[in-house]
Fold this sequence. Notes:
Strand content: 15-25%
Oligomer: single chain
Number of helices: 9
Radius of gyration: 16 Å
Largest sheet: 4 strands, parallel
Number of strands: 8
Helix content: 40-55%
Amino acid sequence: MRVLFINPNSTASMTEKIAIAAAAAAAPDVAVTARTSLGGPPAIQGREDGEAAIPPLLEEIGRGSAEGFDVFVIACFDDTGLAAARARTPRPVLGIGQSAFHAAAMRGTRFSVVTTLAVSVPVIEENLLATGLDRVCPRVRASGVPVLALETDPGPSEQAVSGEIGRAVAEDDIGAVVLGCAGMADLAARLSTQHGLPVIDGVAAACGFARTLGRLG
């Protein structure tokens, strides 16, 4: 099975991080490819960036369809352009946000989302509402870390994300945390160990769901 992860922003270093996380999570019978949407904004922070990212994202979906990929994953936690992408191809299209929400909910526990900037919170809240999983997610939290700081200033960025996870654990009555940005994909294992609860990365979650949906046809 061939799965194409598309990073809707134009930051190639983030795509490399996504590729590593996806390859580590993929089953042996799944071949993962990750591509950067070079026509997208450098980072997706809020609705305007998301809207600007959709046309080049759809071009990548069309290109991947012509190349015969079996499943597509939009590697932005806002699930940018998800509905439009699904209308573009008959093959399964997943978003890492939706995948992470469902993975967390299937653990049978409440979860909070820790994302980047406050501007992303309303978009994520709306996506939770659309999936019906707002009932088990008491809060979407902003860490105050810009998306690109995860690439350019990783140490302090991780500390800020970890601090927000600590506050979520103390205040939200949860059993899991979802990381609300593809650029956090490399942090999940360390933060889970540090805080003593599941910390779910949407890239890894999408890998598992992509395999399942691909097999279902």
